[in-house]
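Per your request, structure below.
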């Protein structure tokens, strides 16, 4: 992992992020209730993180999944909402790969840093209308939607030969109503995960796609689950941030009750050591699994059921481990951590919110197990 970390750190995107971190931290000093400040989003744009998955033909970076994972992790280590914004906002590149190149160029070539937010699960409906669809619905968890140019909105086709099919419609944000009073959450408070709605929006067929029908043969885009590879970066970065905050806590002040320096407490030393071990193991698991998946698609093949299952289980397990890290450090920090402004409380709230993501659902193991033995599993499990 050390060799890989050193290799990744030399990538221009990661160097740009590292350079921007002090200014990003300053941009967050004035907290926003439910969305990242405009200044923070502008700084993220400047690093190039929103175009890290976009094809070079469209002005993007087209970085490999390990670089993307590390970019999200690096940002989340400073603030989970920064990492979340980067994770969501950079999906533009994957969505563009499902489109005809001409259409993708019309959407992104003039602004490769454009954010595509949205909710791709089929919460809306699509009715066939001429050479397209009439789309209506209300979608939750539209993270980064305030700063988005496009909203990727999952729908069920209601009629015709494709009735029942799950499609994703790319709607201009101007065709939607974003409810900016709909995100009052435990954590990830800066993610701006607002609900949004559309009523009878006309979407040409060429601006819709299905995840099971990739158009690109490029290794980065031919495997439909690859866009999920950066998801663990949010929880890994948050866990590493919690370890950093806890280490700082141990290096200053006295332990309540005993009055001795915190750093001399065996219980606190143990909590730190265990947290480091768990986080390090989870990181290795995530990077190894993503690396294996990347090796497979680079070799010109698609991952089979077992490899896709391993990838899916990794996502859930890493979330489980990182949640335990944040909780254990919060508990070890004792009563002082209950205050709103305590950094470990913030880390725990962000972690609990991030791990409520569908990819961290506790039934994941059950669903993947069913798929592995040939039994029915929910759509999209693998």
């Amino acid at each position: 992992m050390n060799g890989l970390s050193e290799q990744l750190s030399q990538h221009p995107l990661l160097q740009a992020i590292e350079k921007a971190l002090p200014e990003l931290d300053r941009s967050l000093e004035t907290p926003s209730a439910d969305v990242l400040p405009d200044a923070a989003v502008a700084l993220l744009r400047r690093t190039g993180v929103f175009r890290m998955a976009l094809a070079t033909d469209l002005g993007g970076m087209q970085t490999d999944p390990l670089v993307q994972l590390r970019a999200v992790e690096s940002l989340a280590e400073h603030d989970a909402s920064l990492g979340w914004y980067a994770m969501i906002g950079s999906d533009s590149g994957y969505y563009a790969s499902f489109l005809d190149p001409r259409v993708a160029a019309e959407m992104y070539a003039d602004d490769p840093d454009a954010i595509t937010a949205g909710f791709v699960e089929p919460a809306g409906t699509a009715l066939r209308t001429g050479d397209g669809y009439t789309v209506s619905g209300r979608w939750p968890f539209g993270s980064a939607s305030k700063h988005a140019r496009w909203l990727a909105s999952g729908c069920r086709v209601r009629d015709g030969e494709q009735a029942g099919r799950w499609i994703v419609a790319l709607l201009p944000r101007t065709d939607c109503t974003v409810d900016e009073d709909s995100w009052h959450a435990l954590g990830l408070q800066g993610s701006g995960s607002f609900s949004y709605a559309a009523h009878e929006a006309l979407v040409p067929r060429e601006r819709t796609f299905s995840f099971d029908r990739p158009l690109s043969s490029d290794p980065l885009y031919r495997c439909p689950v690859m866009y999920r590879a950066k998801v663990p970066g949010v929880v890994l970065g948050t866990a590493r941030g919690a370890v950093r905050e806890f280490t700082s806590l141990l290096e200053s002040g006295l332990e309540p009750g005993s009055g001795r320096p915190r750093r001399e407490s065996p219980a606190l030393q143990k909590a730190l050591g265990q947290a480091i071990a768990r986080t390090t193991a989870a990181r290795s698991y995530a990077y190894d699994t993503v690396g294996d998946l990347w090796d497979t698609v680079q070799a010109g093949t698609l991952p089979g059921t077992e490899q896709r299952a391993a990838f899916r289980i990794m996502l859930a397990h890493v979330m489980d481990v990182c949640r335990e890290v944040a909780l254990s450090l919060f508990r070890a920090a004792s009563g002082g951590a209950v205050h709103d402004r305590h950094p470990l409380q913030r880390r725990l709230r962000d972690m609990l919110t991030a791990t409520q993501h569908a990819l961290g659902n506790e039934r994941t193991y059950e669903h993947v197990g069913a798929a592995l033995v040939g039994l029915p599993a929910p759509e999209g499990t693998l």
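Strands lie at 116-129, 132-142, 150-157, 166-172, 177-179, 194-204, 208-209.

Regards,
D.
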